[in-house]
Amino acid sequence: MMRGMGNMQGMMKQVQKMQKEMVKAQEALNEKEFVGESTNSYVKVHGTGDKKITEIIIDPVIIDSEDPEMLQDLIVMAVNDVITKIEVETEAVMGKYTKGMPGF
């Protein structure tokens, strides 16, 4: 009976260590800067790993008061690009902790 308890304690220590590593990895990811771009980099969107947009840069060359839809489309494209980059990096960093765990 005692042998099983020792294994359980060892397993609990491993789980706690993994939790601490996950928290550190998530914090590092949240602070990381990502840049999404539209076609020809006319619009760039900067965001952090916690999916907060920090900056939008628009090349003045594409600002056309006659065609606001083009600018809107480029902004959407750049925002979606930065979100995709964040999600891919999040999966690469955090996936090793959640792989095979039910509900993740």
From TrEMBL:
Gene3D superfamilies: Nucleoid-associated protein YbaB-like domain. InterPro entries: YbaB-like_sf (IPR036894), YbaB/EbfC (IPR004401). The keyword tRNA-binding does not apply. GO terms for molecular function: DNA binding. Signal peptide: none annotated. It is found in: Cytoplasm, Nucleoid. Pfam families: YbaB_DNA_bd. The keyword Cytoplasm applies. Keywords: Coiled coil, Cytoplasm, DNA-binding. One of its GO terms (cellular component) is bacterial nucleoid. Residues 8-35 form a coiled coil. Binds to DNA and alters its conformation. May be involved in regulation of gene expression, nucleoid organization and DNA protection. Homodimer. Belongs to the YbaB/EbfC family. This is Nucleoid-associated protein IAA20_04225. It comes from Candidatus Enterococcus avicola.
